Amino acid sequence: MKAIFANVPTLTKALVSLLLFCSIAPQVYMYRLNAEADADSDILSVCPFIGLLPGFVMYAPWTFLTATFYEDNIITVLCSVVVLLFCGKYLERAWGSKELLKFVIVTAVLSNVVTMFGILLSYYITADDMYLYQVQINGMSGVFSAFLVAFKYLIPEHRIAILGGRVSIRVKRQQNLLGVATAISIISLILFKAIVFYNLVNIGWVIGWIYIRFFKYQDGIQGDRSETFAIQTFFPEFLHPDISPIIGFVSNIVYGLLVKLNCCKPAPRNYDIEIGVAVPGSARAEAERRRALALKALDMRLSKPPTPASSNAEPALTSRPDVLFDAEENTPSNVDLNLK
After folding, report:
1. Domain residues of the chain, as ranges?
2. Class (C level, CATH) for 2-289
């Protein structure tokens, strides 16, 4: 725990402080209202000035952002603080404060907007006012699922180690992490009718992928159109043959709309936007082939147990495992995996 709170960058501190404020203030507000209300009155369980209520949002549009930093119970508050410290500290050192802030705002606001439209659709289908005034959108689950996409983009060959290294997850197997998050959201939807949590988790990572794929600038280049960051790589490999046609159809529609709106540049003619693969024979295809081979070789090298000879010749690989949250050492400036 000491390592979590050590050397926390400025923006991460600000985000954690905002999370604590937006989570504590509504509890004080609701406690005072409930204390002053009549005994026969219903207990207020929502805070429309910080949480996002679809039927009240026109009077409090700032809740599209503040709702993200509002956790409504102590367990989710503590979990969110720890995750935000872990992820924010790493991403702020990797991207800088400005870029991390932009990523958080984009994924937070758009996740809430899309979730709100989903709830409004449920209202128009059922004509139940509960969806307007009792279903509150709040929580950081959308931003956290987008963080998983950011880690795949930055460090695909590293691993997340927890519990002193006894449990580790290779970031390259990003579909495992997202699969766990998706499974939890489905279970929560079935058992607890957590429609907001379900939508935020599954919308947040898609928005994070779209932003990094098409809009984010890295080293003067907009987006990451590589095959290794195609959207189908976020799904288990055995599903790729079945989902590729669907992904291709949806991707072409979304990308064409973004191009028409001048939100991003059109792809070159020798590039397949559906899955992010360059046409064979092009310079792009050759660069992708070399990058894939280099990543495969590095992955095989990291997965092999160290030998006595290699431990003497390469102390850096054996004495410092490729652990994601060793924040001082494992920033992208020290571990370059772009392999241009």
Report:
1. 2-289
2. mainly alpha
